[in-house]
Amino acid sequence: MDFPRPEEEYWSHRRSIPRGSLTMKRRQFLATTAATGAGCLFLPTLRLFGAEAPSNKLNIALIGVWGRAHAHFKAIEKENVVALCDVNEKHLDEAAVKFPGAKKYVDWRKCLEQKDIDAVMVCTADHLHAFVANWAMNRGQHVYCEKPLANSVEEARVVRAKYLKNKSKLATQVGTQRHAYDNFNRVQELVRDGAIGELQQVSAWGNRQLRRAGYLPPGGEPPPYFHWDLWLGPSKLHPYNADYFSGGAGMNCLQWNMYWDFGTGQVGDMGSHTMDLAWNAIEAGLPLTAEGRGEPFNPEVSPVALEMHFDHPANSWRPPIKVSWYQGGVMPASPAPWVDLNKIGHGALFEGSRGALVAEFNARLLIPFGDASDLTYYKPRRKEDLLPPVGDFQQEWIKACKGNLKTSCDFDYGGTMIEQMMLGLVAYRVGKKISYDGATGQVTDCPEANEFLKRRYRDGWTLEG
Ligand SMILES: NC(=O)c1ccc[n+]([C@@H]2O[C@H](COP(=O)([O-])OP(=O)(O)OC[C@H]3O[C@@H](n4cnc5c(N)ncnc54)[C@H](O)[C@@H]3O)[C@@H](O)[C@H]2O)c1
After folding, report:
1. pTM surpassing 0.70?
2. What residue numbers bound the domain in which 25 lies?
3. Which of 85, 87, 173, 409 most suits a substitution to test ligand 1, by most atoms within 8 Å of the C-beta?
4. What is the DSSP string of 341-398?
């Protein structure tokens, strides 16, 4: 026998209640039941007690339901997936077999209007991330957004500001799931506890090299089940070409993310993951300066070979530091001739007054150097003092939606990091070292750079909706 969910009784009055206040009430209910179990007071039977009781489930909309989205199926299958949205109707039908109770949409703007959505997972192409995330937060919906969170400085700032304004109500997570590897915590502990002395410089790099000549030529009409115009969304019109989607499930992004209208190449792609390894340890905000060098700027495709450098001010536990990103075969200098950083496809190097720490996602190598580097200044933590494990990364967000709203890669942390990376691309584009005012989001010494802080959108598309 089915018992009515307590919130369903409440929801039956929804027509007379404005959307925002209503959706918040359901979300507050979820948070309260998760935190205190108080929801049980309404329930007619013991059968519904516990974390998996229907009343404790999140109503989730999955936007972009194929490819990367498959990696989230396990995390959301115990929740209520109430909406599916994809511009590819074949993908939509496939996902509907897994989640038969969900309504189907091809336009995410219509999907977000579905009234019972608590939380949204965004797995679309990069150029839609900030749009969907921001619109969802405007509707009081929690958001998990695949990386990169934004494709421009402006997008990063808008999404971050929206989250900060609503952080007492919303849980957000950028899809940088490697963050949950224990090695991230260990690296942070070594750096903060002084294993390399005083931190001076941090470099992260990625060696993936995908070269594209320019936007693909017209490739005929899109198939009838594929909504190309909606895929383009706010980006300029380009002719359809099936080769943009020839990568296979979870790999298609490598076919389109090099093109400026759809992505930011390896800066937004592996840059999101690998700079996270550094960012997690250094407690940085927005940089004071940015500089970018690489192959000549191409207005159609992002560069393969690139280096970007940022000056960050001191904080309470370290002096000012330099933070750098290298990609496409350009590498930081190795801390010792016998350490070949080229052997690490995606890694980070922390340099301090008494040594260096080389890390990849899962492992680390401490290199004390100099006569004073006897490690007497560093004491490994006791087991009970280690940073707690993040645990399952998607579940961290789901629990946060239902409870304390805390996640390890919220839109403040992830938004600040991607703003720095997008600023580096602006510096690369103008070919100058630029000074940045993080409070206003303006470049202070290069007026032409301010032009490139934003993307231009097609008529009818607005980031704030
Ligand atoms: N966190 C990770 O490790 C990781 C790994 C792979 C991809 N990703 C990210 O996931 C995202 C998707 O990558 P992918 O390789 O799965 O790409 P993809 O091109 O296969 O797209 C995934 C799905 O989203 C749909 N989609 C695209 N735009 C849409 C829109 N506007 N509205 C609704 N549906 C839309 C596509 O039709 C497809 O079904 C990218 O942003 C990528 O950076 C993250």
Report:
1. yes
2. 6-178
3. 87
4. GGG-SEEEEEEETTEEEEEESS-EEEEE-STT-SSTT--PPPGGGSPPP--SHHHHHH
